[in-house]
Design a protein that fits this description.
heterodimer, A: about 260 residues, mainly alpha, MetI-like fold, two-stranded antiparallel ribbon, 12 helices, about 80% helix, B: about 280 residues, about 75% helix, Carbohydrate ABC transporter membrane protein 1 (CUT1 family) (chain B), MetI-like_sf (chain B), transmembrane (chain B), Sugar_ABC_transporter (chain B)
């Protein structure tokens, strides 16, 4: 075999290994989700069915799904405008001590969420703040670095000339923001909102520590089922339920972003 | 009298405040509250008095936890960096670019770590999918989940974070590497020379930043080690959680001490990464 052909074969094998690395952990999830009976050492389930889905529904997957969606949506609805405003200001290089301000806004990335949740929990209990409000407040703070970074990059590449033209043509400040600025950064806004949604959707430790077990989200059900024995089918169904909505959102946000770049 | 309009700097400050105020308030309040609790100044019962008792009481577990947490973070970040770099190279290669690998890595990003832990558990457990595929009996299957080497925990972090590293590095390489690579190839540089002298130096800052973010995340993350790890010894987040939720109220200050130690460790890692980034930039 010639050297380029050997290199080509090695590269194909390497790529196959990399694809396997990314996909392999998801294969048992997909199989277990539809397995009614899958005893060792069978490589495939002996009986297919919906036992996992029934167990998941009985464990309260429906309500947990709604609560997780709501939590993600609320975190996104709060953290996206905060990040957009901060990103706009930081990209304009007019913020006094801009580097320090950026460092503070990014600090939640460096801090362990359990440490912040643990410190805040004691305080929230003393101040009698409702648990759900505390969870949202903390998760918004966790999400702000992502939305700020995304929007700062978007506004840095954004041409303010369009806004100046709109102002010259007589558009008011709000009209300019609504009709010119926001449509231009819409793909980045969608990306920032997606990342903030993920923070709320995926969180476990903040919901457990600050929520005190009263806010049952999908990750809490996954953890409870995964810690039990003999509940593999239920774990798989709950896990897939936790994966599919954000993956679908990612595809939508990705196609929005591509449309935005083409336009 | 007309109200004075804020100038551009005033307006920028007003725009940044709605994000800055909650971050400073929440992070500041949480850290101060944890510090007071750990130093005996805000006891849940009894009189406040400054002492290092909580740190002293937790010292043994704290030492083990620091070593274990750093070890898990280093091992998983190391694997994630190597695999993530390979993924990024394959996804941005000039010839035979793999769009599939790029898409698969992107789709791995939104999977919650807890779900990743559940999936790795189903894959690597005694009677898990991998044991079935390889036809190994549960009795002779190595204890990957809950074993002494924390294999399942490291595998989960390495899996998820390799996709993150791949995305960050591919983002940099996609925009800049092609033109430099072509120039180098025109000047006669071979495959390895291009990788060593063009691609890697271009990717280095992004690779280092992604590694630091992934390391700090792993250091402070609770659920994966709680689900796939063993009962003892405990990584720092698991230790803090157990102490904090213990029925013994006297353990709360110890939990705060562990939390603050983890925070200090994470900040040290960030500072070291920033220094290394600055040194990389200065070498150019």
């Amino acid at each position: 075999m010639s050297a380029p052909r050997a290199a080509g074969a090695a590269s194909r094998a390497g790529r196959a290994l990399l694809a396997l690395w990314l996909v392999l952990p998801l294969v048992p999830l997909l199989l277990w989700a539809f397995a009614d009976r899958w005893a060792f050492p069978a490589v495939l389930p002996q009986e297919w069915g919906t036992r996992g889905a029934e167990e998941a529904l009985a464990a309260g997957a429906g309500g947990a799904f709604l609560r997780s969606t709501l939590l993600g949506a609320v975190v996104a609805a709060l953290a996206t405008p905060l990040g957009a405003m901060a990103g706009r200001a930081l990209a304009s290089r007019q913020v006094p001590a801009g580097t320090a301000v950026l460092a503070v806004l990014l600090a939640p990335l460096a801090l362990p969420p359990f440490a912040v949740a643990l410190g805040l929990d004691v305080l929230l209990l003393r101040l009698r703040v409702p648990a759900a409000l505390g969870v949202v407040l903390l998760l918004v703070v966790v999400a702000v670095p992502y939305t700020t970074l995304t929007m700062r990059a978007a506004y840095a590449a954004h041409d303010r000339g369009f806004e100046d033209v709109a102002r010259t043509l007589g558009a008011g400040r709000w009209r300019t923001v609504r009709s010119v600025q926001l449509p231009l950064v819409a793909p980045a806004l969608a990306g920032a909102a997606f990342l903030a949604f993920l923070v709320g959707w995926s969180d476990y430790i903040v919901t457990v520590l600050v929520g005190g077990g009263r806010l049952t989200t999908l990750p809490l059900l996954v953890a409870a089922a995964a810690a039990a024995t003999g509940s593999e089918a239920q774990v798989a169904v709950l896990s897939l339920t936790a994966i599919l909505p954000p993956v679908a959102l990612l595809v939508v946000v990705g196609s929005l972003g591509r449309r935005g770049r083409r336009a | 009298m007309t109200p004075t309009r804020p100038g551009p700097r005033g307006r920028a400050l007003l725009l940044v405040l709605p994000a800055l105020v909650p971050v400073v308030a929440v992070v500041g309040a949480a850290l101060v509250s944890a510090a007071l609790l750990s130093l005996g100044l805000a006891p849940l019962v009894g009189e406040p008095g400054l002492s290092l008792d909580a740190y002293r009481a937790a010292a043994g577990d704290l030492g083990t936890g620091i070593g274990l947490s750093l070890g898990i973070a280093a091992a998983s970040t190391g694997i994630a960096v190597v695999v993530g770099l390979c993924l990024a190279l394959a996804a941005t290669a000039a010839v035979r670019r793999s769009r599939l690998l790029g898409a698969l890595a992107a789709l791995t990003i939104p999977i919650p770590h807890l779900v990743g832990a559940a999936a790795i558990g189903l894959l690597l457990a005694d009677a898990g999918f991998l044991a079935r595929l390889l036809g190994v009996d549960p009795a002779s299957w190595p204890p990957l989940v809950g074993g002494q080497l924390w294999v399942a925990v490291v595998a989960e972090y390495a899996w998820k974070e390799s996709a993150f590293v791949a995305l960050v590095v591919a983002g940099v390489l996609a925009t800049r590497a092609a033109s430099y690579g072509e120039t180098a190839a025109l000047l006669g540089a071979g495959r390895w020379a291009r990788l060593r002298y063009v691609t890697l130096p271009l990717a280095a800052p992004a690779l280092l930043s992604a590694a630091a973010v992934s390391f700090v995340y792993t250091l402070g993350s609770y659920e994966v080690a709680a689900l796939l790890g063993r009962a003892y010894p405990e990584p720092l987040p698991v230790l803090a959680y157990r102490l904090f939720t213990s029925i013994d109220l006297a353990a709360r200050p110890q939990a705060a001490a562990v939390a603050l130690t983890t925070t200090a460790l994470a900040l040290l890692v960030v500072l070291a990464a920033l220094r290394a980034l600055r040194r990389l930039a200065a070498e150019r």
